[in-house]
# Entry
Amino acid sequence: MKILVITLMFVSLAFAQTVDCTKVFEERKGELLKEIEKIDEAKQSFEALKAATNSLFDRQEAKLDKQRDDLNATMRKLASREENLQKMIEENEKLIKKISGLKSDKISDTYSKMKDSAAASILEEMSIDEASSVLFTLQAKKVSKIMAKMEPKKASQITQRLIVGPPFK
# Structure
């Protein structure tokens, strides 16, 4: 009977310790499950934040790409306009040269057909630069005849200006 009592005590003691261990394990398991839930919630929050950040980044990158494309299109338009303006300037310069040549030819024809004394008196009334530009277009023989009819001082000034050459402004 002693043995039976000792065995019974031993079994009850062992069973009591098992219950306590199970109880401790169950409590610890509950705590670990709560911690896992907290980690899962933090992970989900992190994933949501990451997704929102990536979405924002993608939108901003798309916006920058659109702005870059708009800027490139504007630069192409400006380059095209600049090229067109350059062509127009070149055409205008050609027209100006042509008109100047026609004007110079017409003035030259007019003075070459005039009498030398009449041309001399008209040129004496002009500024040195204007008279020089007219005489520059005439033939040397006609220039010498006109200058012979001019006042010597004015003819001398015009000759000095002709030596310098165009432009006469």
The chain has a mean pLDDT of 84. The longest helix spans residues 2-113.
